[in-house]
Structure of Succinate--CoA ligase [ADP-forming] subunit beta:
Amino acid sequence: MNIHEYQAKAILKKYGVRVQEGVVADTPEQATAAAKQLNAETGTTWYVIKAQIHAGGRGKGKINETGSNGVVLAKSLEDVAPKAAAILGGVLVTHQTGAEGKKVNKVLVAQDVYYPGASAPKEYYVSILLDRASGHNVIMASTEGGMDIEEVAEHTPEKIFKEWIDPLVGLQAFQTRKIAFALGLSGNAFKEMVKFLHALYNAYVDTDSSMFEINPVLKTSDDKILAVDAKVNLDDNALYRHPDLAELRDITEEDPLEVEAGENHLNYVKLDGNVGCMVNGAGLAMATMDVIKLAGGEPANFLDVGGGANAKTVEAGFRIILKDPNVKAILINVFGGIVRCDRVANGVVEAYKNIGDIKVPIIVRLQGTNAEEGARIIDESGLKVFSAVLLKDAAQKVKEVLA
Ligand code: GDP
Ligand code: MN
């Protein structure tokens, strides 16, 4: 589960990670009040206004309606409200949101931490994630902060430093010193970075996160190390241990069809193609997507209805797939192992009748226990549903209905 920057920073702060201070606001008036509060607390007279969406690239991204960037600097208190107004309620498009963008409901008004001083501030990159290949958490750090890390990885991979952490011994002091050294730090900034990394790692482990990305981490002109940005991904499977974190969920940021699928305990991922599919079992779902491609279609989704497919889950799956306007056909591919094919077939017919008015052709391929009876139920239903027993036949039918 992703959370907003302002929520992530609040968590980091609790663990002793120094962050760019900020106050969240829903309206331009609140933004001004937030700036006043920051001025009182930190003395800052310049403010950064940051759109809160679950996507990165906000600094370079643009608000459709006003042309404002998603992260802007306000150099006076009076400047805060109009700049916040140009972001709030607008649709922000960044390289991570896709062309449709994301609506901005909140802004974070933050203290400007790039103030000029004895030396120029410097941006670094730090992330922590689970390296599944080694079964270790890995800290990645780079001097190329503020940049897209994918680009750094492609063009100058030697500039990304990695340190793997043994889960049994945890993060050791020599490792954080190694990272701070690799980043070329010295003096107070070196000590600050070591402290920063330990606090950050504690937060990561304690919250059962699967990814932290702090880009940029800033070395201020007075040698403090702080998190300017914070992308936190919490492990969904561990959320039951953190009811306080589970509450941070913002479903307005999630794909509505995926939210609906979750409520029905369906494992659904929306894709861009034209053939919807409903399958029991993730492996079979992957194979089905291959078959759709082979037949000249493109899968519109991944949908695993799980082991206990019944009329209710089939109907919920249908409704979700049909809400996607790109869907030109639906392929249902069910292997009757625990679930019997005749039950699934009855479920399909019942769901079809309940929803009514389905315009796209549906191909049902049932294999396994009672497959023939399932096919007979489909064929005799009188509905615009085609049955197939072999995967090859199902692919052929997909080809025919798309033609
Ligand atoms: P992202 O674009 O979504 O990754 O959002 P960030 O939080 O990383 O902010 C984008 C950029 O805004 C940063 O890389 C900085 O260059 C700039 N920025 C953030 N905070 C400040 C600040 O306090 N002062 C100034 N001048 N720029 C800032
Ligand atoms: Mn960033």
About this structure: The chain has three domains: 21-111, 122-246, 256-402.
